[in-house]
Amino acid sequence: GAAQLMGLEGEVPTGEVYKERVIGEYADGYLYVDAIRQVLLAKKGAPFHETSPMLYDITAVPTWQKTYTGLMKMYKAEVLGKFPVIQHFLFGPSLR
Hints:
Layout: H1 20-26, H2 31-42, H3 48-51, H4 53-58, H5 64-80, H6 83-86
């Protein structure tokens, strides 16, 4: 999702991605903004910074390039780096 937004900081500012104006205008076109919209819909009634502190902290990152890089590092460490997840991947006939 953040990869779609690289270079669009002027159009979709990283620090405003959770605000109604940005969500209303860009959620249908960008996966990251749509994911934020889904979080806000699921956690109505409380401030974004309280319900999703990690996502809120990510909004302080100045560029979408840095956001993308950070999310990819986190994905590699927290998902791909975990043995129980990787052991169930089918790698094809070359590794049988």
